[in-house]
Design brief:
The protein is mainly alpha-helical and 96 residues long. It contains 5 helices and no strands.
Length: 96
């Protein structure tokens, strides 16, 4: 799933196409690109990443989580790709 999100991050035109799609359409598109995963896998992984990012920032993952403000004006997929996944790949990434 992360490989697919990184693929989307590298292709702005693809993100633009997928950003308004519902989860089932997103999962189908991922499978078409060779990155199959389920809705449950997506939910579990993204939730885990958000929790880890909040912990790495020394914050609680609740309604006051500072990165929620980055979602304003974005679709959720844009937030996941542009903010959450980008944090994974930063020089100070929070995953081993």
């Amino acid at each position: 799933m992360l490989a697919f999100l990184r693929h989307v991050a590298a292709h702005a035109d693809l993100l633009d196409t997928l950003r308004t799609r519902d989860k089932d359409e997103l999962i189908a598109a991922a499978a078409d690109f060779g990155y199959p995963f389920t809705g449950a896998e997506f939910d579990t992984k993204v939730w885990d990443l958000e929790l880890r990012l909040a912990a790495a920032r020394g914050e609680k993952f609740d309604q006051n989580f500072a990165l929620w403000s980055t979602m304003w004006g974005q679709y959720y997929l844009e937030y996941v790709v542009n903010d959450l996944v980008a944090s994974l790949d930063s020089p100070v990434g929070f995953l081993p």
